[in-house]
Amino acid sequence: MVRWLWKNYQYVLAFYFAIEEIDRDPHLLPNLTLGFQIYNASPNDCRTLRTVLMWLSGGDKVLPNYKCKRQHRPVATITGTSAAFSAEIGALLELYRTPQVTYGPFDPMLSDKDHFPSLYQMAPEDSSLARAMVSLLLHFGWTWVAIFISDDLKGEQFLQGLKAEMVRKDICVALTQRLPDTKTMYGSSDITFMTRIGISSANVHVLYGEVGSLITVDLAAEFFLTTGKVWIMAAKWDIVVYEMHHMLHSFHGSFSFSHHKGEIPGFRHFLKTVDPSQYPEDVYFSLLWLHLFYCSTAGSSCGKVGECLPNTSLESRPTDINIMTISDSSYFIYNAVYTVAHLHPLLKKIQFINSAGQHISLDNKGNQTAQYDIQNTVNFPAGLGLLVKVGEFVSGSPLHQGLAINEKVIEWPAGFTEIQAGVTALPSMRQLWPGPAQSTSWALYFMLEIPANRQLRQADHTFEAALDAEQCTLCSLHEFPNTQRSHCLPKVVAFLAYEESLGTALACAALGFSALTAGVLGVFVKHRDSAIVKANNRALSYVLLVSLAFCFLCSLLFIGRPNMATCILQQIAFGVGFTVAVSTVLAKTVTVVLAFKATGPGRRMRQLLVSGAPNFIIPICSLIQVVLCAIWLGTYPPFIDTDAHSEHGHIFIVCNKGSVTAFYCVLGYLGSLALGSFTVAFLARNLPDTFNEAKFLTFSTLLFCSVWVTFLPVYHSSKGKAMVAVEVFSILASSAGLLGCIFAPKCYIILIRPDKNSLQGPKNRNHKMHRHS
């Protein structure tokens, strides 16, 4: 392998790291380990299809539709780096119903579900990249620009969007050049287009394309030196830089836009400690080690090559191969492995928070705001080839106001003269705090050259200017500035835990009420033949008590660190459990009405009461709620999310309800059912019931409705842990209201006043009162 490809081996290391991390996790795949096979992605179409057929056959020969060895059916295939490669094998994988997860750049061609129904792209769509690049152009006042794009659908779509943004901001296009595609380092390619760069008056070039097109430009730059030009490029440039050994490298000082990615905990340590001896079956790893250090690890079969020193690691790599800095594709591979590990039958429905704190969703519904890192290519000294982060762009704010650049750390190309003077202007309040119009809030920390002690405050964030500050520092979503405004600190991850006092109190209350409900159920079972238990259908009383115990226990799902299972079960258990409870109350109320109406012989009401018609209310009403919940889970189910702006210095791990419409449909149906129960109970409150059941049902449903009517405004005005606590408290309060109002009077009669627990007691009292009068 040639040197410029060795950077790609980080993809394999990211894959190994994700596999081992998942296998160590006792919760994600309990009692299971992930098996895998790794194949080299060849740029030759014929070899690519042959390799896939060999893999599907399970042997060393191509035997379509036949497996040479017994092996498990693959859960999914992770592919990349180009869209062409994924498309080539996509048609074949579709025949075998094997999902394909790609880690390459987003390509609209692969989004065609008619041709690729089982293909999923980890990279988000570059819908805001054109705006981000235009923002950078405006920041430096560059209005005369040349554009180089790949000659394909992806390049054409980007070109149209970029030109539209440039026209709106009065930026002129000096020339537009479509790039030929090169698939190999040694294949023939037309590079004469580079001659147009020398005669162009534009000193700023925008470069966008697939990997093959970028290789073409990289090869051409070795023969056509383009010093004095600034290149603005897309993310994949870090895998194709070839001639970085030149002091006057054509792309030194260029800018690269890549999707924002967090630091994967433990990955850098893994790269420092990993060596080929841990993966003896991986020949390429041994070759990489030999290429980097001219030695081999213990037990290697590399002939007479000397053995490496014990402290040899990738951290001491040559500077021309930067394996320690994670690339976009490695980050997407890490997320792809975790996506497949969730084993959802429809990968599009998977949503989770990765270890870097970023929300991952294959349908992009949870990622409405695009965030790009802006990196500067540095090649001094020669061969360094580093990408240094110099800024960020966040979409969702007005153009040119979502950009933050630290000009002091930028390395400029040799001979470049169009550098705008460092003008620092005070951002508007809208720039500092985008406000409610933006779907995801973000915070920037600025230090400006303005008089001391001047402060700008918005919501719970403070932007303070320091005297003689010379550069801007950017804090990411998961960081906040310290009190001295000198550097960024990581935010504290928080959730409603069992260990804290509020979580402990709510958990104890839930367990206590559920135990109390179980005790009441025991009392009713023990006295099941007494008059007060048999009144109004004792089977309904049993069902109501069991459902109330379930409602109390379901509140425990809201406490503790959220995960995918608890997020889904929270709302489903809440909705179905309370529906059963409220529909049982409705059935008991209808029983009271039917019992009063059925006093005459031969009446239809008596037939309904004897046939047990009220009992059918529970399954019918519950089935409707189950259907609503099934639609919710099938369209946009709840998922794990983070809230980084509710409280300063904290990131709350929360359960996003997914479809807010579905949530309010479930809650609205439950409210309608409770309101109907209250109405029927209220109309029947004065019926001459022996044990006054109708009045107790009226009080219980009134309290239930009052709790949830109060819940809505309080819930929406709360943040972080308080929001979860409000929901838990509402569940406990409404359940306790039903338990207390309906069953407390009956338990009093059963346990304290057994003399009243008969049908004769009330009649005797009425007879004595009549005789006394």
Short description:
This protein is α/β, with parallel strands linked by helices and 773 residues long. It is built from 21 helices and 20 strands.
Describe this protein's structure.
With 773 residues, the protein is an alpha/beta fold. The chain has four domains: 3-125 and 291-357, Response regulator (Rossmann fold, 3-Layer(aba) Sandwich); 126-261 and 367-417, Response regulator (Rossmann fold, 3-Layer(aba) Sandwich), CATH 3.40.50.2300; 427-490, no CATH class; 501-765, Rhopdopsin 7-helix transmembrane proteins (Up-down Bundle). It contains 21 helices and 20 strands. Strands 5-4-6-7-8-11-12-13 form an eight-stranded mixed β-sheet. A three-stranded parallel β-sheet has the order 1-2-3, with helices on both faces. Helix 12 packs antiparallel against helix 14 (538-554), helix 15 runs parallel beside helix 18 and helix 17 (617-635) runs antiparallel to helix 18 (660-683).
Topology:
Blueprint: H1 9-24, H2 45-57, E1 77-79, H3 83-95, E2 100-102, E3 119-121, H4 129-140, E4 144-150, H5 153-168, E5 172-179, H6 195-199, E6 204-208, H7 211-223, E7 230-233, E8 255-259, H8 267-273, H9 283-293, H10 328-341, E9 351-353, E10 359-361, E11 371-378, E12 386-394, E13 403-405, H11 429-432, E14 455-458, E15 461-464, E16 479-481, E17 488-490, E18 492-494, H12 501-526, H13 531-534, H14 538-554, H15 564-597, H16 604-611, H17 617-635, E19 639-643, E20 650-656, H18 660-683, H19 693-716, H20 721-751, H21 760-772
Parallel strand pairs: 1-2, 2-3, 4-5, 4-6, 6-7, 7-8, 18-20
Antiparallel strand pairs: 8-11, 9-10, 11-12, 12-13, 14-15, 16-17, 19-20
Helix pairs in contact: 1-10, 2-3, 4-5, 12-14, 12-20, 14-15, 14-20, 15-16, 15-17, 15-18, 15-19, 17-18, 18-19, 19-20
